[in-house]
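This section describes the prediction task in plain terms. A model, or a person checking by hand, is given the sequence of a single protein chain and must write out its three-dimensional structure as a string of tokens. No templates, partner chains or ligands are provided. The sample shown here is typical of the held-out split.
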Amino acid sequence: MGTEDIATLMAGIGARARAAAAELAIAPAEQRRTALEAAARAVRESDAAILEANARDLEQGHDKGLSGAMLDRLMLDRGRIAAIASGLEAVAAQDDPVGAVMAEWQRPSGLTIRRVRTPLGVIGVIYESRPNVTADAGALCLKSGNAVILRGGSESFQSSRAIHAALVQGLEAAGLPPEAIQLVPTRDRGAVSEMLRMVAHIDVIVPRGGKGLVGLVQAEARVPVFAHLEGICHIYLDRAADPDKARRVVLNAKTRRTGICGAAECLLIHKDLVAGLGAQVVADLIAAGVEVRAGAGLDHLPGVVRAAPEDFGREFLDMIIAAAVVEDVDGAIAHIGRFGSSHTESILTEDAATAQRFLDRVDSAIVMHNASTQFADGGEFGMGAEIGIATGKLHARGPVGAEQLTSFKYQVTGDGTVRS
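The expected answer:
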């Protein structure tokens, strides 16, 4: 499409989204819930069409030479489709955030002041290969009373269209405007650039993808951005770690799904454990098919690959993990501060004081103790789904669910009250 055509297309989408947002903001909570429940049924009923569309995306992905991890992110099966439908139902069942009274107080002047949750308005979501984001983002925006413009990756174009069709069925069944959830109908990258400039139509942009995508959005956006940076997640094996817990958690953190942002990308080992539990954990990873890129002090272990400097601070999204020796918990904290992306970090220890030091001093959106980093997920946090993991510090941080997609306003009531 030409530049003018893209601008015209996106302006139309934006205008329709703004109009839909005005309706959603005053729609009853039950109506939005009904739409999500109907969308979940439509996803289940459309599983054959969604699988067919996903097969076309996978075929194109193979032809383009996508990595195994990227193909896994793209792939849908009946289990994953059922999980998408369940996610929609979980979001539907949550308490409605719109209109919730966050605080209420009275002033000596006689005024009653309430702080009340309100939708943000129109949200633009730009994401890469995971088609389930289409459902997650659509559901969370709808639940929070926001209209949404979705721009999925070219790799998941057909899958996203099939899932979006089910979301529209849900909106129509509930009598809500179908323009409340719109999918940009072109692979043209010009649509992304246009979204980033649509200050009249979009209130916030949420990028969900790799460093290249997020960096582009942050550099070019004129619309405010919720940043979702790389998941350079660390797991620290402390001197007081329980061996059985440590071996189980590290293996899960790396290998359960390597292509998600919560996958562990760097293993930090206390210096006293190198010859014992640390070596065993490294051996477990290698036995599971993980390439361990080991730094100084670990590069003598059987089967490892010597790490290059750039392996630390890198999101592999693959069966690869960096590994380093640290002096103690403070060394682990310093390493994370230098190489981390403020996403998710975990400490494995039975020493409560050491665990608390780690939890208090690591400045990431999610900090864990004796748990796999793979739990860095809005669904696992009880949010039903997430629109992303925000790694910034303004407005929203960590899993961004429906509540995080609201702002607030003050409702002030008087009785002919005047200021002296």
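For orientation: The chain is about 40% helix and 20% strand.
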